[in-house]
Amino acid sequence: MGKWFRAGALLLACLLASAGCSLRRRVYTRDFFDTFDTVVTVSAYSASQAEFDALFSLVQGEFTRLHHLYNAYETSPGGIGALNAANGQAAALDPDVLSLLQWATNCYETVSPQVDITLGRVTALWKEKRDAALQGDAAELPEAAALREAAAHTGMDKLVVDTAAGTARLADGALLDVGAVAKGYAAQLVYEEAKSAGYDSFLLNAGGNICAAGAPAGREAWNIGVEAPDHWGDDALADTLLLNDQCVATSGDYQRYYEIDGTRYCHIISPDTLYPPAYCRAVTVVCADAALADFLSTALFTLPPEEGEALLRKTGAQALWLLQDGSIRYYPARTP
Fold first, then answer.
1. pLDDT higher than threshold 80 for residue 329
2. Are 127 and 256 spatial neighbours (Cβ–Cβ below 8 Å)?
3. 52, 56, 5: which is closest to 205 by C-alpha?
4. Superfamily the domain 4-56+200-331 falls into
5. Which helix (H) or strand (E) covers residue 123, if one does?
6. How many whole angstroms from its chain centre is CA 109?
7. Residue 17: pLDDT band by 50, 70, 90 thresholds?
8. What three-state secondary structure class fits 104?
9. What is the per-residue pLDDT across 158-206, written as a single tens digit (0 to 9) for each?
10. Assessment of whether the complete model's pTM goes beyond 0.85
11. Contact, 188 vs 291, CB < 8 A?
12. Is 153 helix (H, G, I), strand (E, B) or coil?
């Protein structure tokens, strides 16, 4: 597993400092902003601009394809949006959508029920209020009765997948929201494809969902900064991680949120309370799989850290919590 440790270098500084370590390869970096509502940055040690451009094209093309399939707000053929719009009828789905649904169902059953992708009717109520507040309307909470009514149409039993037919349907008016897992799942698919294509030293950063293949030239691992939330401590980074063939995901309350009377309401909703949790400012997970890291970071954000540690013991993943009081909690515990 990777090590938790403090360091003063940002990722970009690390890349530039390492660029002179190889006579045959140098670092290239480029990003795009048209998928998963975030910036995707690709960094790699390549022998030529052409080699890097081929990697970048692969990454951008696959992220774009998966973005359209996993976006619940557009009805691309075979995608999540088409399933949501099918009014309870069976919808033919792309194999990468079916695999995501099966994977999310398995994680719900074997890892944690804190990530329920059928919570779409509940999260839609929160999104409506958050969007209105951010557009200048009076900030309001969803009505409690409306949340309870929406929750009555949730539950993983409402998702019926027929793998033999390549279809799925949603019962009882359920809607899917795969935002807690889709970006990490997509990152893992792209990461695996890039490695299969022969790329062995690169970094994918999809808005904090990070996959680190190999290590930079002349180094043992990539340095990855963990962002400090706004007004949390004095530094831009809360910590720095060393990664080699590992992945990172972070869930927090400091990017998508709105406030009412000084209380922050973020986009992550607990399936238990139907409200955003407030156990920590953020939680970062490190493991070998980007999809699992994404799933776990969301699950841990909705749980007290003590319960989160019990969950982590089942998975072999590492985590750090940025707590409300400005302290950091590590699992496994960090030795002095």
1. yes
2. no
3. 56
4. ApbE-like domains (3.10.520.10)
5. helix 120-134
6. 19
7. very low
8. helix
9. 999 999 999 999 999 999 999 999 999 999 999 999 999 999 999 999 9
10. yes
11. yes
12. coil
